[in-house]
Specification:
Blueprint lengths: L11 H26 L5 H24 L4 H18 L2 H18 L5 H18 L10 H44 L6 H16 L8 E7 L2 E6 L10 E4 L5 H8 L4 E3 L18 E8 L2 E8 L6 H40 L3 E5 L5 E4 L2 H5 L4 H4 L13 H12 L5 E8 L5 E11 L7 E8 L1 H15 L9 H13 L6 E8 L3 H7 L1 H19 L3 E7 L2 E7 L4 H16 L1 E4 L2 E4 L2 E8 L6 H17 L5 E3 L7 H18 L2 E10 L5 E12 L3 E3 L1 H10 L3 H20 L9 E6 L9 H12 L6 E6 L1 H5 L1 H14 L2 E7 L6 H5 L5 E4 L1 H5 L4 H18 L2 E4 L5 H10 L3 E2 L10 H10 L19 H12 L6
Parallel strand pairs: 17-18, 20-22, 22-23, 23-24, 24-25, 25-26, 26-27
Antiparallel strand pairs: 1-2, 1-6, 2-3, 4-5, 5-6, 7-8, 7-11, 9-10, 10-11, 12-14, 12-17, 13-14, 15-16, 19-20, 19-27, 20-21
Helix pairs in contact: 1-2, 1-4, 1-6, 2-3, 3-4, 3-5, 4-5, 4-6, 5-6, 6-7, 6-9, 7-9, 15-16, 16-17, 19-20, 21-22, 22-24
Length: 923
């Protein structure tokens, strides 16, 4: 506390000190008349007494104006008092002067030296009493001197005790005022700088008058740094010093985290706190603690701080730490609210909250974009009113699951648009009826109309022929199965239609004219049935019809004749009139025992018999007339020996990079070189292998040969672009528990990298049992091999499920490649599939590339890989290695490119003929 007499005193202590000074000066003034009136005193003694009183008054006033009782005053005052006391000549006259001086010295001097100051003043009193003009003749009144000395000794400590009590009262008042002001100022903190300013100002008020060296520092922790602001003059000033919290010693950090004030020299703030340099100042450090974390500290340069002041600093530290905590939480809450508001306001999905009565209480702005309703128009409206009536039951189940069973559910609903149309929406419901501030059910509505339309389009394209828009083979087989399973349908007939010499139309007029003929024929066949059956395009120039024939063979024969006449009508194509003929095979299911595939095979065999009889006719299947059944039995009996005798061979069809025409892979295609029937295609014996439980053994033979072929090709090319192989996996083989081990053994036995092997599965695998297929595919993927989905688009698997499968390659079915030259339909579908592959990070491989135009369009669409007769037919292992060694392929210049599609190589002619006899066809 600065005790300048010019300033207005603050507090009771200051008033008491002023009073002590006044009493002491008044005592000196009262002593002057007594000294001058003492006629018995020598003039020199009177002059010395007066001079001593004046000098003492001036010295006290001067030292008080500076800072309080200084060292000079402590040394000179006893001497001046002795002179003044001797001049007074009487102990009783000197007693008030000495007592007032003792009290004043205790009030203005160092607090811990009050007894010493009083003792010095008492000693001066005794000396003055002994040396003055006392009535010696009458004797020295020792009792008066003793009483006076006791009064003087008690005056100083009593004054000091009173000063200490009043000082404590003043500090408490000052501390309370400062902390109250700080509490109000920190009630709503705006920034760390404002908190630091409040803390510095409050610390200055708390320490006012309590420290000799008032240098202080308020350090606020921001992340890992302490920003220090010292008191270097009259007011606190920011120094800009940064003290990393990690720079503090571990012992000091541990002590600070304990939350108790401490005195230390370890705080590295040398010279930053006080106006004079201190190499290692001893500091009183008070931590600012909130939730067990040090948010800052208060450092005082003078460690001799009263305990109540230290407690006030600790209370201030808690307030500042909580203010910092509040600021951090407030800023975090504001940022979180801002982010949440931005997310909700800009979310493409509609976010709505409805109460237990399904009344909308909140709707996000996306409601206007998605449903056409402004958010205010949706409020206070029942959400159920937006649901399509046909989806009401689904909505009720969804609402019960979310509101009653508190489950998080997702449901597909049609929601009414403001325009009256319906939008397919994916609605996610979350129970939040018990959450304060929400008290409702949160609905997240995503418009999936485009996705639904795409799925419907893909489903339609997957189940329909892209050229004629008729059902394709997969869809047709489903229709046949449904007809066979319907107990109300007594007889079902399947008619297999194959156009005669249709290839000549493509060769003579071009494929565009041939496509027009097929489109026209499909429309006429569908019209001829008049809704009494289902007609489909199986592929190429093959069609099929399934219908009821209650009249049996006669009605089936009548229908076949009608269709032949309809087909024979003149078809207009490319400005030329064309007359088409066809051969029809008929198979009748007389009971519910036949399956769809078997019925189709029977009709297929009957069609080949009709062609053998001269074409342009029909034939009804009769098992008694077909000697091919014996061939089938013969093949079944010979198949096991063929696996052991080395009759199973593998052909390889290159898979090329469509840009560089380099061979990147090869599909392994199995063949059976039968000693009597020659080279047989897979359709001739794969069904037999499945029936005889030999499918696994057949797969192992092909897998081992393919892996050895991959190793042989590895020596022909640089290591950075090896050629891999693709092996087909039949759907039943996924049920083999040893499949993974067989694949791992084949890869290790051949000594190739697992990445060179691709296992190809048809899309029907995913439709049959997607969960089991995904588990087995994950086990195969763990080996390191690649996985491919074949015939994509023909089996319709869930796109959402396909996204979760560990698939690397998606093979585009040849039916989609055939439709590429129709920009309106074919190209858009292939583009959609390629975009899907890009989104799922899959490699796309186009199958059945036979014409240069198809290659050009695939390149334009961004398809990187493909295979087909345009590059090469399936060839022997040696021929394939020769193709790999020769470098990039030349489209249309393969070894057998001079032959037409109707003139396959000699081996494949035998494959086709024997396969027909064996109830199968080469693909």
């Amino acid at each position: 506390m600065r005790g300048a007499l010019r300033e207005q005193p603050h507090g009771l202590v200051e008033w008491l000190r002023r009073l002590g000074l006044g009493v002491a000066v008044a005592s000196l003034a009262l002593s002057l008349p007594v000294i001058t009136s003492n006629l018995h005193s020598p003039p020199a003694l009177v002059a010395a007494g007066i001079t001593a009183c004046v000098l003492l008054a001036g010295l006290w006033l001067a030292t008080t104006l500076r800072q309080g009782l200084g060292a000079g005053s402590v040394a000179v005052t006893p001497i001046g008092l002795v002179i003044a006391g001797v001049a007074l000549g009487s102990p009783l006259g000197a007693l008030p002067l000495f007592a007032a001086t003792s009290a004043w010295s205790a009030l203005w001097g160092p607090q811990r030296r009050a007894v010493l100051l009083a003792a010095g003043t008492a000693g001066a009193y005794v000396a003055a009493s002994a040396g003055g003009r006392l009535p010696v003749a009458q004797g020295w009144n020792a009792a008066e001197t003793a009483v006076g000395t006791a009064v003087i000794l008690l005056a100083g400590p009593l004054a000091q005790l009173l000063c200490a009590r009043l000082a404590a009262h003043d500090r408490a008042a000052r501390h309370g005022h400062a902390l109250t002001w700080a509490s109000a100022a920190l009630l709503q903190p705006t920034s760390p700088d404002s908190i630091a300013a409040v803390a510095l100002g409050t610390v200055s008020q708390v320490l006012s008058g309590d420290v000799r060296a008032p240098g202080i520092a308020v350090a606020l922790r921001q992340d890992v740094c302490l920003t220090v602001g010292p008191v270097t003059g009259e007011l606190p000033a920011a120094a800009g010093l940064e003290l990393p919290y990690a720079a503090l010693g571990p012992g000091l950090r541990e002590a600070l985290e304990a939350g108790e004030p401490l005195v230390t020299r370890e705080l590295p703030l040398d010279g930053q706190l006080v106006r004079h340099d201190l190499e290692a100042p001893q500091l009183l450090v008070v931590p600012m603690l909130a939730h067990g974390q040090v948010r800052g500290l208060i450092a005082v340069a003078d460690p001799a701080v009263p305990a109540d002041t230290t407690a006030a600093l600790a209370a201030l530290g808690s307030q500042v730490a909580l203010a910092l905590e509040t600021l951090t939480l407030t800023q975090g809450l504001r940022e979180s609210e801002s982010r949440f508001r931005s997310l909700v306001q800009n979310n493409a999905d509609v976010i709505a909250v409805m109460d237990v009565g399904t009344t909308v209480v909140y709707a996000s702005p996306a409601a206007g974009r998605v449903l056409g309703y402004p958010p205010t128009e949706l409020r206070d409206r029942r959400f159920a009113d937006l649901v399509h009536p046909d989806d009401a039951e689904r909505w009720d189940d969804f609402l019960d699951a979310v509101s009653i069973r508190r489950q998080r559910r997702v449901v597909l609903l049609r929601l009414r648009h403001r325009s009256g149309s319906w939008r397919h929406s994916e609605v996610t419901g979350t129970h939040a009826l018990d959450e304060p501030g929400i008290n409702g059910i949160i609905l997240n509505c995503r418009d999936v109309s485009e996705r639904k339309a795409l799925e419907d389009d893909l489903r339609h394209q997957a189940m329909h022929d892209p050229l004629t828009n008729l059902p394709n083979r997969a869809h047709f087989l489903e229709a046949v199965r449904a007809a066979l399973a319907d107990p109300g349908r007594r007889r079902v007939a399947l008619l297999f239609i194959d156009l005669d010499n249709f290839k000549t139309i493509n060769d003579r007029l071009g494929h565009a004219a041939g496509d027009e003929v097929l489109i026209d024929l499909a429309a006429r066949l569908d019209a001829a049935l008049d809704g009494q059956g289902t007609v489909c395009r199986l592929g190429g120039d093959e069609f099929a019809v399934v219908t009821d024939v209650p009249g049996g063979r006669s009605q089936a024969a009548q229908l076949a004749g009608q269709l032949l006449r309809e087909i024979g009508e003149v078809a207009h194509g490319r400005a030329q009139e064309l007359r088409i003929r066809a051969s029809i095979g008929v198979a009748i299911a007389d009971s519910g025992a036949e399956d769809a595939a078997d019925l189709l095979r029977r009709a297929d065999l009957a069609m080949y018999v009709a062609k053998g009889k001269g074409k342009a006719g029909f034939e009804i299947f009769d098992s008694a007339t077909y000697a091919s059944i014996e061939v089938r039995n013969r093949l079944r009996a010979d198949l096991a020996g063929a696996l052991l005798g080395g009759e199973i061979e593998v052909r390889y069809q290159p898979i090329v990079n469509l840009r560089t025409l380099e061979i990147r892979n090869a599909e392994a295609l199995v063949r059976w070189r039968h000693p009597d029937y020659g080279l047989l295609g897979p359709d001739a014996f794969i069904p037999l292998a499945q029936e005889e439980d030999l499918l696994d053994e057949l797969f192992h033979v092909v897998l081992r040969q393919a892996c050895v072929q991959a190793r042989s090709c590895a020596h022909l090319l640089p290591s950075e672009r090896p050629v891999g192989v693709t092996v087909n996996v039949a759907p039943p083989q996924l049920d083999d528990p040893e499949l993974v081990e067989h694949v791992r053994a084949a890869v290790r036995g051949a000594g190739i990298a697992p990445q060179l092997l691709t296992l190809e599965l048809t899309e029907n695998v995913l439709v049959r049992d997607p969960q089991r297929a995904a588990e087995r595919m994950a086990h195969l993927k763990a080996i390191g091999v690649n996985l491919a989905i074949d015939d994509f688009g023909t089996g319709y698997s869930s796109l959402a499920y396909l996204r979760r499968l560990p698939v690397d390659v998606l093979k585009i079915d040849r039916t989609f490649v055939d439709g590429l030259e129709r920009p309106s339909a074919g190209q858009s579908l292939v583009r959609t599939i390629l975009d899907l592959c890009h989104d799922l990070d899959l490699r796309a491989v186009a199958e059945g590339i036979e014409r240069p135009e198809q290659l050009r369009l695939l390149r334009l669409l961004g398809c990187r890989f493909g295979q087909g007769f345009l590059f090469s037919r399936p060839v022997t292992p040696a021929a394939f290695r020769a193709l790999v060694a020769a470098g990039p392929l030349v489209p249309g210049c393969a070894d057998d490119s001079a032959r037409t599609d109707s003139q396959p190589p000699a081996e494949e002619q035998r494959v086709g003929s024997v396969s027909a006899a064996g109830q199968g066809r080469v693909r």
